[in-house]
């Protein structure tokens, strides 16, 4: 394993702490107006909690995941590798040549699952002795860009395919491309398409009781939810909450930017959007937004007590101390 260790950071040694130092010195910080403190969210984060920048400059940041001993894994997807951050904040390369791994999931037996984008597929990538592909196409239609996944207690895998990447050349194949969709792979390997009418399905997550499946639609204005049956099938699709991130960019395109999702021990759902990290109760009440220097792409609770929220996006990794803990029933 090739290591790229950097010195461990103090708990609040990031940009937001620098902002506080500038203010204490009487210096204006409008020049660094991207350095914002998160607002207070009852039971989630205290007012004035610093945002700790662990490191910036990664070639893509996605798929954060709690990984034993308080560590965090995430994918540096444009570099085709997985990065590890230990509890002290030391950054190393965990693995390379990941076939463009984008999002990760960890099974109870230690199997590391990934949605992979270079040669689009979903499967187990570690340990090497158990590596295998679960799905690479649906009824002969190749996946465009598998995006996110979550494991359930039945041994099944929910994942999203956002569709072909407009910035990449189409695969050399005679097979037709699959539509953007949400899928489920059962524990015995059967692939089921659950929904194919979401414009750009992105993040996917289960409630702690696994009775609700959440799906982020990047191009939509709302977080989508489904009821989950005992066999893993879904029903009663609905718009769970409208997102504050719904906005128009400089090109006139409307998008919420909805991306990665996480849940905490109390069932709150956290959504990375254009606005920041939007937090909602399990009853669909908007609780607040954690503002960040850069637009977030994905997030996960990690640390020994799972009371640290890690947020990745636009090449940067941040961590925020929380009042609540992440759900402990799975790695994410």
What is the general shape? globular
Query: What is the CATH superfamily classification?
Result: TolB, C-terminal domain
How many beta-strand runs? 28
Report the portion of residues in β strands: 35-45%
- Give the number of domains: 1
How do the strands of the widest beta sheet line up side by side? Answer: 1-28-27-26
Number of helices: 1
- Main sheet properties: 4 strands, antiparallel
| CATH architectural arrangement | 6 Propeller
CATH topology, anyone? Neuraminidase
End-to-end separation: 25 Å
What is the overall pLDDT average?
89
Uncertain stretches: 1-34
Order of helix and strand elements from N to C terminus: HEEEEEEEEEEEEEEEEEEEEEEEEEEEE
- Provide the helix percentage: under 10%
Q: So what's the CATH class?
A: Mainly Beta
Radius of gyration: 19 Å
Structure at a glance:
The protein has 332 residues and is mainly β. It has one domain: 6 Propeller (Neuraminidase), CATH 2.120.10.
